[in-house]
Amino acid sequence: MAILDVEKVIGDFEAMTKDAENVQRETLKLILEENGCAEYLQNLGLNGRTDPESFKACVPLVTHKDLEPYIQRIADGSFPLILTGNQ
To answer: Which residues are listed as membrane-spanning (predicted)?
Structure first.
């Protein structure tokens, strides 16, 4: 069994979180690239844009209730790229 090197774990964590803002921007960009074709994002007018500013301008903060019609369509068997870019 390996011995945990606490200092290494802390150092690795600090290195990974040092540039959290850019990591989050890149993660959002990847999510939007993969899901830009989803009906939900198309209806909001994102139109394939992957930058955080466009996301903030086009995509409102929503609740489960707001997404319920989309979720229900998926539950009913409709799978054509409703909420994600994957079927």
So the answer is: none
